[in-house]
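Notes from hallway chat w/ T.B., transcribed later so I don't forget. T.B. wanted the structure written out for a chain they're using in a teaching module, and asked if we could keep both sequence and structure tokens in one place. Agreed to drop them here.
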Amino acid sequence: MSRRHIMDEDEGKRVVDPSGHEIGMITEVRSGTAYVDADPGLADTIRSKLGWSEADEDDYPLDESSIGSVTDDEVRLQDAF
């Protein structure tokens, strides 16, 4: 089952484009906004999965209107066309 809104437990999920190509990882969810690291390293991935990560100046806020679906494994962006 999928949904279209971000929740705290989405931290650490990969973000993919509509074709399924990975474009980043959610490092933090703050006040319902997901922040995406477009180039996460292994340490960033582990920290985020453990809930120890925080968004920094290199992370981008993900507008909820851009989300096509959220599953157990990923956040898939919707097609812009």
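Follow-up for T.B.: The longest strand covers residues 22-30. Might be a good example for the class.
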